[in-house]
Amino acid sequence: MSELLKVGISIGDVNGIGLEVIIKTLSEAKIYQYCTPIVYGHTKVASFHRKAAGIQEFIFQVITQAEHAHAGKPNMINCWDEDVKIELGKANDIGGKYAFLSLQRATDDLVSGKIDALVTAPINKHNIQSDEFTFHGHTEYIQMKAGSPDSLMFLVSDELKVGVVTGHIPVKDIAKNITQEAILSKLRLMNHSLRYDFWIEKPKIAVLGLNPHAGDSGLIGLEEEEIIHPAIETANKEGIFAFGAFPADGFFGNQAFSQFHAVLAMYHDQGLIPFKSLAFHHGVNFTAGLPVVRTSPDHGTGYDIAGKNSASPSSFMDALFKAIHIVKRRREQQQMVENTLPFSKHSRDRD
């Protein structure tokens, strides 16, 4: 039991469905065969959500440090002392304040190695903004805390894996952020993740165009000819099997994605709309390209169903198991590298 991975969990917006899906996930006995979960929040807030959702006989073990976690049980680190006024379904400053306190403590433990992976419940990207959090979302914040120059928002499921070149930015800013360097960086991160996090030896990556009909040979736009195709050619020279640029509508409409291991979309909605249509409730948001492992369910705060016991834990459970699998694959890969047989040059025996 002592060898189980410690997986941290941030609770997200206290007015949303985060704690409901967390408690439903951790109510499954099988979880404790694979990890020791540590939730960063507060037991009083968790108790409120448990009662609101009508969940009976579930108790967190309160600990003060991740290293004190009890194997075989759900653990909770209280990240604040004061009482919290919870208003289910409302987007307010309270929800943002405590979502950040949870995320901050969990991320600090992640980057310091006290936990092996982090699963983040959904936040409201507006109400979490403060002097300490000035980011577009989890991805950018955790990338900063991990000290990484770049990362890839990678939505993964059994049916489809989609990454994006530009993430949480306004639509009006997308085109100017599509550069050869940006595309190449994301292709490198995606290729590396497919090989080392998902153990796909020679991944095939489809690259989508930016414009309708992938620019229609320059008739509708020049980004494909001047930026995307040259980036793909450079990636090919580096040994990355990238193909495209494909028109996004036809690519998903005719199931062409099934011929590739992953897809690189140019912007958020271009990739996430088809992903969520095909893999909703079972999709996982994975931040690839970091030295730490972070996953998240592919849904939002769910204000409209908060406290109604109708939130499905499927995506959150998938995110938890995906984090465990990725950590184990990385460690196995590292062990194989460290334990390679030494090379020695043998000469032919002479009389």
Describe the structure.
With 351 residues, the chain is an alpha/beta fold. The protein contains nine helices and twelve strands. The protein has helices at 18-26, 43-52, 93-111, 138-146, 180-196, 223-237, 248-253, 268-279, 314-338; strands at 5-10, 35-41, 61-63, 75-78, 117-120, 152-156, 161-164, 204-208, 241-246, 262-265, 284-288, 294-297. The relative contact order is 0.16. Residues 347-351 have low confidence and may be disordered.
Major β-sheet profile: 12 strands, mixed
Please provide the count of β strands: 12
Strand content: 15-25%
Structural class: alpha/beta
- Taken in chain order, the helices and strands follow as EHEHEEHEHEEHEHEHEHEEH
Please render the helix and strand layout as text:
Layout: E1 5-10, H1 18-26, E2 35-41, H2 43-52, E3 61-63, E4 75-78, H3 93-111, E5 117-120, H4 138-146, E6 152-156, E7 161-164, H5 180-196, E8 204-208, H6 223-237, E9 241-246, H7 248-253, E10 262-265, H8 268-279, E11 284-288, E12 294-297, H9 314-338
Parallel strand pairs: 1-2, 1-5, 2-4, 3-4, 5-12, 7-10, 8-9, 8-10
Antiparallel strand pairs: 6-7, 6-11, 11-12
What key attributes describe this structure?
disordered C terminus; globular; about 350 residues; alpha/beta; 9 helices; 12-stranded mixed sheet
Task: Please sum up the structure shown.
The protein has helices at 18-26, 43-52, 93-111, 138-146, 180-196, 223-237, 248-253, 268-279, 314-338, and strands at 5-10, 35-41, 61-63, 75-78, 117-120, 152-156, 161-164, 204-208, 241-246, 262-265, 284-288, 294-297. With 351 residues, it is of the alpha/beta class.
